[in-house]
């Protein structure tokens, strides 16, 4: 069973690299965005806001992450 | 007429996303396999490739049917979240590359690096372990991202068979064409394809998470086309803005 911790560690590292990696801001922003949309979508009368909010938050995340990388590059 | 009635917008975008994702990763994997095959011989390179494809196929076959039993809304929320993160990462990288802020992936350079690495290992027995491992690792690691795309897209849409079939066709087509035009792999518009995949993954991620969170999309799954167009326009605008900023900072510097 000595291989088990190694396999579990490798599995964890794979998902960490895939989802967080060198862009932790994307991971955090997506989790927060989904939480916010979940709150809004259960509120009556906020349907139109919920439809627009998810694409707008995804776009804001992309813009912020790209700007962060561009600033670091320059 | 039957085909027209049963093919949905979601299917079309799914096939496009899986095909492009497979094609992009296949180009990168093929570069490694070609470099290994040319320097160390084809037998072990092809054995390593075959073994990696078998393991990847087994992963899809083992995990895919198990995921079907997870409640759909929970599955779509988790999978949609993964697609959003994964797609935003692809899109970010492609935008930075298109704007000249990150080096483009150079297949010629990758080929030279693998050849140099292979030539540095002198021993070359009948069964070339180094060549096998190198080809296996290259195909397996590039293929893992494809497995994630096939599983997440296929299972959420309840179209795992279609996603797997599309991936298999993409591997055969790109593999076949790649072997014929091996020397021109660097001419493949890889970054543009990556941007296309990123746009589609983010669109699917937005759509599935919205469905799971009970967002009532206007037009049902036809909204996917609007999301694809929206994210493509945003990406183009960002590239253009970054390029303008880059040329302005060059002018200031000179």
Parts with pLDDT < 50 across at least 5 consecutive residues of chain B: 1-5
- What is the tally of helical segments of chain B? 9
The number of domains of chain B: 1
Distance between the termini of chain B: 62 Å
**What composes the largest sheet of chain B?**
none
Annotation, overall tally of beta strands of chain B: 0
- Please compute the radius of gyration of chain A using only Cα atoms: 17 Å
Task: Assign a percent range to the helix content of chain B.
Answer: over 70%
Task: Quote the beta fraction of chain A.
Answer: under 5%
Order of helices and strands of chain A: HHH
Instruction: Outline the low-pLDDT stretches of chain A.
Output: none
Largest sheet of chain A: none
The total tally of domains of chain A equals: 1
Strand content of chain B: under 5%
H/E order of the elements of chain B?
Answer: HHHHHHHHH
The overall average pLDDT of chain A, rounded, is 88
Query: How many DSSP E strands of chain A?
Result: 0
Helical residue percent band of chain A: over 70%
Shape of chain A: flat
- What class, by secondary structure content of chain B? mainly alpha
Question: Brief description of this entry?
Answer:
The complex is a heterodimer of chains A (74) and B (254). Chain A is 84% helix and 0% strand.
């Amino acid at each position: 069973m000595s291989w088990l911790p190694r396999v579990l560690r490798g599995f964890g590292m794979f998902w960490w690299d895939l989802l967080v990696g060198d862009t932790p801001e994307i991971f955090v922003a997506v989790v927060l965005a989904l939480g916010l949309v979940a709150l809004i979508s259960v509120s009556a009368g906020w349907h139109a806001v919920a439809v627009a909010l998810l694409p707008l938050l995804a776009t804001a995340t992309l813009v912020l992450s790209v700007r962060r990388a561009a600033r670091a590059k320059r | 007429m039957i085909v027209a009635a049963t093919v949905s917008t979601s299917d079309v975008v799914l096939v496009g996303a899986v095909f492009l994702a497979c094609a992009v990763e296949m180009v990168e994997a093929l570069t490694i396999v070609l470099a290994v095959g040319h320097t160390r011989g084809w037998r072990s390179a092809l054995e390593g490739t075959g073994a990696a494809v078998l393991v990847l196929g087994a992963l899809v076959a083992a995990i895919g049917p198990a995921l079907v039993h997870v409640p759909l809304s929970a599955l779509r929320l988790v999978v949609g979240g993964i697609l959003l993160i994964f797609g935003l990462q692809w899109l970010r990288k492609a935008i930075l590359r298109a704007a000249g802020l990150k080096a483009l992936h150079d297949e010629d350079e990758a080929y030279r690096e693998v050849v140099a690495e292979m030539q540095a290992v002198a021993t070359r027995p009948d069964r070339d372990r180094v060549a096998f491992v190198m080809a296996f690792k290259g195909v397996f690691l590039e293929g893992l991202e494809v497995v994630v795309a096939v599983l997440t897209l296929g299972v959420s849409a309840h179209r795992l068979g279609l996603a797997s079939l599309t991936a298999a066709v993409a591997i055969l087509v790109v593999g076949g064409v790649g072997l014929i035009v091996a020397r021109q792999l660097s001419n493949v518009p890889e970054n543009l394809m990556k941007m296309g995949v990123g746009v589609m993954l983010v669109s699917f991620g937005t759509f599935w998470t919205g469905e799971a969170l009970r967002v009532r999309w206007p037009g049902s799954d036809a909204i996917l086309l609007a999301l694809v167009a929206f994210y493509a326009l945003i990406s183009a605008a960002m590239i253009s803005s970054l390029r303008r900023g880059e040329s302005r900072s060059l002018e200031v510097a000179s």
